[in-house]
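Page 47, continued from p. 46.
Same chain as before, 365 aa.
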Amino acid sequence: MKRIISVRIAVVFVLAVSAMSQGASINVPADYDTIQKAINAAGANDTINVSPGNYNENLTINKANLIFIGANAGIPGSSERSDESNIIGYVKIVSNGISLNGFKITDGAYVPAGEKAGVYIVGGTSGHTIQCNLFTRTGAAPGGPDQFRGIINEFGGVSSLQVKLNKFSGWHTGVYLQNADAQVTNNVFVANFVGMSIDGSIAVTVAYNSFINNGLEGLGVGVPAITSLTLEHNCFSGNLTAVANYQSIEINAEHNSWASANGPYNPASNPNGTGDAVSDNVDYNPWLPACCGDPLHQYPVGDLSKDCRVNFLDYAVCAKAWLSSAGDGNWNPACNFQSADNVINILDLGIFVSHWLECTASNCN
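Result:
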């Protein structure tokens, strides 16, 4: 009997700890009329849900592991969106493990003892995810600088930062990383003065982004030298300079698109290139012939060869898997477009045929 009671107590304790780790849910403006009041009342691991509306606030997030859910959570910044949870001012992140999902950040503001920013990340913090947000500013960009950055971290560095599925427009710099360990993926940087800048970072991945019509440069890489940089599968189009390397060491920028089958322009190494220009010390060869797979040129359904076209290359792959099911030797889950039945059959073929010859690359006729 005592053992049963002990087990029951243990189960209750585990459930209680689990509930505590999940945190509470706070709603703005239903529970608190401002986001900052919700932050002040929150405990670590709480979720703050923010309804559509304009919030003229400068926010300081000083509780760990808070999750902020805006009206467009899960919807990329470049997609069609509903009414926004619009923060007009800055967001200053002081603690670790912050998630900001589905907001509009408008204009930013001067962060005391910091920078002019939309989101300002204090140095030494880690574990942030900034996704599916729309960063907009009506400043001087792309015609000239005004020193406002969409996202910037202090030079003290940030680790385990994810910036994904956002859109940045009108900023001096969309994202400015300093001594950062970060992944920047599937974002759109359009009509900024500089799309993105990286200075002295530890390890940065920049992949599957669109850098479009930025006034000075799409991506600038400065000093001190970056320990590790992965730069691939990005689309650069309409930028005065696509990639500007201010270091004396070469950076690897292979497998990106420069909006031209002839590759990027460089007066010494590729004078016949008709794509966006690149500076010296940029290894751009081989390049992708057209923008494909970035947020503005998504792979169509059925494009198994990842060339942004549904054609006989893709048909050959699915023909090999025809009538197979999960566990068969020729089974290919990528061809299971009607996934509920786990069989490659006429239902999958119908979906495939409906996208036949669909093309989403930047050079589609």
